[in-house]
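Please fill in the sequence for the structure shown.

STRUCTURE ENCODING:
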């Protein structure tokens, strides 16, 4: 009798413990069915319905994505031994549509669709853009790009969490010497301003940290990706047309420090306005794809090699591993002549260089 009671008691006490460890599962349906499904950052399949067993009770994430469609990232919580159905309907990707934000301090990203564009100097009869030739068609695969330049606040969060340090040596326009850094670039900034006085290696370190933190691949854009996104479907000198003014972008509208002080193509770009510093990101109107400061405010690093002695040769479409060469920088800055903000205008800098008009924005692979 005692043995029977002991077994009954054992069963009574063991069964709840077993139930506490019972696996949960989800069943995922997507429209369209041929979508990639990631659970907690791990690819589980590329066709649905998809049954995912063996989940521990608690909080999880599911991400569903397919090229050309807007992906969806969803958080859910599941209990012991339960089966949860999840349904997703993906919609066509719109250029500039917001991508899910990976963390509170992560850059806001937008979807850039697959497409083809004419890269290089616009045929507007001007004397500018000789190094941006030959004009040629480039195919671009879909990717994500930062809606804004990386800000002081975002870079500060990286430095605080990672312990990363930078040298206090930065070339400063409109300020004497080079005793400056990203915290003190020679003019006042707050957390909403684009971070400057960062070199190529600083930008890559930030991207690598963010990749580790989120499980997503952040990087600098290629030169071709940058121009494709800056143009946003336009074929003119600027995404604003064949002229630009200081209500549309942050640049030197006085042109006082340039040898050529004449107006850009006599179009009204010489406005007499020059603020001599960065402005907060989002201060000026965006381009047609919702990207801010793709002309002016801060020059931006790309991951592509560029040398003034070379015309386009394919390097514009790849990220280089040759960090000793000059790298392409794009977009112009607060201290630029209007010509420096043309969508096709190419500049370069060595990878170790820090300047108080040079920052970056990040790209992300789908």
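FILLED IN BY: designer on duty
SEQUENCE:
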């Amino acid at each position: 009798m005692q043995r029977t009671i002991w077994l009954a008691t054992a069963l009574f006490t063991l069964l709840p413990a077993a139930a506490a460890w019972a696996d949960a599962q989800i069943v995922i349906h997507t429209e369209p069915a041929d979508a990639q499904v990631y659970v907690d950052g791990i690819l589980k399949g590329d066709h649905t319905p998809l049954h995912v067993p063996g989940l521990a009770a608690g909080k999880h994430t599911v991400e569903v994505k397919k090229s050309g469609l807007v992906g969806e990232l969803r958080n859910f919580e599941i209990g012991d031994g339960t089966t949860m159905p999840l349904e997703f309907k993906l919609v066509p990707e719109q250029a500039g549509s917001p991508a899910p934000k990976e963390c509170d301090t992560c850059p806001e990203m937008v979807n850039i669709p697959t497409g083809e564009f004419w890269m290089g100097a616009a045929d507007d009869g001007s004397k500018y853009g000789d190094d941006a030739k030959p004009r040629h068609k480039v195919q671009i695969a879909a990717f994500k790009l930062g809606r804004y330049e990386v800000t002081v606040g975002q870079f500060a969060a990286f430095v605080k969490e990672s312990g990363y340090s930078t040298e206090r040596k930065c070339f400063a326009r409109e300020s004497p010497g080079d005793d400056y850094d990203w915290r003190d670039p020679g003019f006042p900034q707050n957390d909403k301003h684009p971070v400057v006085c960062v070199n190529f290696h600083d930008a890559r370190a930030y991207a690598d940290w963010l990749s580790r933190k989120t499980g997503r691949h952040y990087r600098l854009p290629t030169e071709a990706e940058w121009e494709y996104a800056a143009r946003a479907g336009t074929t003119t000198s600027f995404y604003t047309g064949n002229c630009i003014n200081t209500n549309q972008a942050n640049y030197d509208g006085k042109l006082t420090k340039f040898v050529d002080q004449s107006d850009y193509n006599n179009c009204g770009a010489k406005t007499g306005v020059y603020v001599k510093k960065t402005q907060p990101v989002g201060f000026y109107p965006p381009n047609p794809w919702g990207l801010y400061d793709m002309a002016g405010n801060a020059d931006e690093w790309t991951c592509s090699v560029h040398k003034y002695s070379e015309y386009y040769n394919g390097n514009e479409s790849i990220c280089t591993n040759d960090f000793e060469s000059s790298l392409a920088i794009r977009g112009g800055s607060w201290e630029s002549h209007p010509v420096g903000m043309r969508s096709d205008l190419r500049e370069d800098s060595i990878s170790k260089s820090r300047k108080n008009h040079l920052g970056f924005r990040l790209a992300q692979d789908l």
